[in-house]
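Moderator note: this is an archived Q&A kept for reference. The question asked for a predicted structure of one protein chain; the sequence and the answer are reproduced below.
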Amino acid sequence: MLSAESAAVVRATLPAVGGALDQITERFYGTMFRDRPELLDGMFNRGNQASGAQRRALAGSIAGFATALLADPDTRPDALLERIAHKHIAVGVTDDQYTIVHKYLFGAIAEVLGDAVTPEVAAVWDEVYWLMAGALIAMEARLYQEAGLAAGDIWRTWTVVERREETSDVVSLVLRPADGQPAPAARAGQYVSVRVRMPDGVHQLRQYSLSSDPGGELRRITVKRVTGDAGAPDGEVSNLLHDTVRAGDELALSTPCGDIVLDDADTPLVLASAGIGCTPMVGMLARLAADGSARPVQVFHADTAPTEHALRTETRDLVDRLPGASAQFWYEHPEPTAPDARTGLMDLSDVPVPTDATVYLCGPLPFMRTTRSALLAQGVPARNIRYEVFGPDLWLPDAS
């Protein structure tokens, strides 16, 4: 995929490019949104832009792709690319937008690095970009085709049939297709984008896991109200859903996306989550229960307190329906309502996990890093540990 000559140039210039990626992506987004403000309406989340999460995710994906090519120039890093492709489908990316990104990204590289970007360096990084873009375009075309959709045509109107308050800051919305047609196929562990119009008229998107069995005609999302901290803004979409959406209202949902899905194996299964990261895990448990699975399942969840643990009772009920399942919860602030819970952060040091288990992680990045390290220490292979990140993916676990 990458010639020896090109690989040598990438290897020599990656430290400089990688070291300046934050500056490059900041300049890239600033210039692109100045010239193409319509991209902020319904494709890019303003909160992720304000916090820098989107910028860091783009920088990480470029650096990760280049590093993977250097490690094995003849092999495409499909695991990295598949994750990005699903994120792109969830916001309706089309192949023509790669040309727009190329224009502004390479303009930013030239501005930030100046004379260091010789014609040879520019040509090689152009090659890297189009290797990555070409692979993503092909993957995304396949995903659109499998979903029976034209490129970018991901939206459908759904009606809220039930709203349920789960905790003080978490609400579940149950939805049905407004057109009366069958719901699109989905797999346990996947997510949908929700697109809403904000008070200033701009559309904003946010992804939410399917938190119930996706095998029927109803879909459920479970939304935590995002309150900004450390200078970050409040979550626009989550707050609007909490404050304004009721049964009978309509929402625009994307086609289901996501590459972290419940597998069909019969090996032991571990579902480890923290906070609102429980949502895809409950969807997986519901799917297992619907199938009458006898698979060995260990459910681990960490939260601040039982009253803040969304879907706690439902999780227990689903575990009780599965003959091979067990659950263990950790709470920083225990309460009498959960006498069998452990106190503090999740600690798996004395919780045996089968080394052939398939593990799914979802929660804050520090939680996933710590839990992954604990599982590796127990002998679970890295290839068996899969993770879901809400929002831009800022974690490359193989490099951590």
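Archived answer notes: The radius of gyration is 22 Å.
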